[in-house]
Every structure is written in C-alpha cells, then in structure tokens.
Specification:
Elements lengths: L11 H11 L5 H8 L17 H14 L4 H9 L4 H8 L8 H7 L2 H14 L1 H11 L3 H12 L8 E2 H10 L4 H17 L7 E2 L12 H7 L14 H14 L15 H7 L3 H15 L1
Antiparallel strand pairs: 1-2
Length: about 290
Amino acid sequence: MAICPAHDSVGQMVFLIFGGVMRRILSGLAIGFSLLSAPAAIAASCGNTSSGFEAWKVDFAKDAKKAGVKSKGLQALAQSRYATSTISADRNQKSFRYSLDKFMQIRGADVIVAQGRKRKAANPAFFAALEKQYGVPAGVLIAIHGMETGFGRFMGDSKVVSAIVTLAYDCRRSEFFIPHAIGALKLVDQGAITGNTLGAKHGELGHTQFLPGNALTYGVDGNGDGRVDFYNLTDSLASTANYLRQKGWKKGRGYQPGEPNFAVLQQWNAATVYQQAIAIMGARIDK
C-alpha cells in the first residue's frame, strides 16, 4: 500500500496490506451463518487458477441470489475480474513475527500517537459523543484508524468486489471469504459501494478497513445522511465503535492485556502484537 507519514517504508507495505486480513478471524463463522441463511448452501466449486473463475461466477451467482443478493450485486459479480494481485498478496503473506517494540517502531507508533492526540484535541465533542454512545474511548478508535490507513491517507488501490470475489473462489480460504463476498454484493445492492470501489488487497474497505461481511453487519450511519459510507470518517469510526461494542466492549473497563476489553481487541485483529500495540497507543493518545 502507499506510503503515509504514520508508517516507514520498511514495513508498512506488509502490515497495511496484511494486517486487515488477520482481522476478525474469530467472527468469520458467525458472519457466515448470518449471511448465508438461505436454504441452499454455497455450492460453487473453488479453483486455484484463473481458468475456472468465469464459470465459477455463473454458479456462484445462483447461490448469491439464493442468499439474498439482488440485481445490482449480481451485476457487480458478473463484472468482477480475477484479481491476480490479490492472489499474489495472499500467497506471500508474512506472519507478525516481530517483537512488540520492533512492530511499533515499524508501524510508526510515535507518529500515530502524536497525530492522534492532535486529532482528538481538534474534535473533542465528536469523540466524546462516540464514547457516550458506544463506550469506546477516543484513543482506541484513533489508534485503529492510524494503524489501518494512516488516518485515511491510503485506503487501498484494489477493487473491493473483484478482490473479495477472487478470494471466495480461491480454494485456499474459500469458506472464510464466501460470506464476505456475499456481504460485498449486498453492500452494492444497498449503494454503500460499487463494483469500482477501491480497498485493500483482501477486499477490506474504508478508513478502518472492514471486511465486507463485517461492514454489512456492523456498519452504522454515523452522520445521519441516510446511508452507511465507510469512506466517510464519521460513519467509519461510528461503525468501528459499534463493532467493538457488539463484540462485548464494556464502557469504563480497561483494555490493556489482562483487562476485560482486551479480549474485544482480539476480535478486531488476531495478531497479538497488533492487539498490544493498539492498547498501548490508545492509552498514550488518551493520556
């Protein structure tokens, strides 16, 4: 992903691209059950090369329709293209093997904290309103925003629908990504995204890089304009706070390791160093 001030050039490409794919693994099955509640299960056969993608889409369209996808979503599916860059990224993922100190150095934690404090000070009423409604303090939301997209400076350069549909087709983790592909198509139906909306390599979208199934489930209209727009900062941060609350965030309780809300951060991202970094930076921003 593109360079932003919150990250140095050594590590940001890896972590911005792959950080999101670790996100909310533990909630994937729950999303799957809710999105695939149609009588028929997804039956289209996966593949490991582009050769079977177009035929798979035809079969998948039938299953998507049974799952509740309407005409706009089906059209976006038909127009999607096999995302070679997504497959390349997925095949070359690297684990979060850095120490916590090294991880925070590479991610530019000091810069995120400094910029985060300025953002909180510039709009205290906004963050206070989010905390009042959802119970999540500003520091956590700001730290996630900074970690995911460098405060919105770069939200991805891959077409969300093509990326997520490609991953649903690919045999490596088809079962995990199919619900998110259905979610992306339903987001198209709702007008939240289009087939040309850009996001990360694995289909994450918006300021805080929601996977589409999670976006569909937890997205809220934070600014009251009648639509959920993950590329709008208010909607995105409200949706992030809503996700955390729905996952069990307890207002006023701690979120450092061993404290009640740390388990909720584990729902946001499965990497331990990421969870710890968010906790540390969040506390520093709110200090």
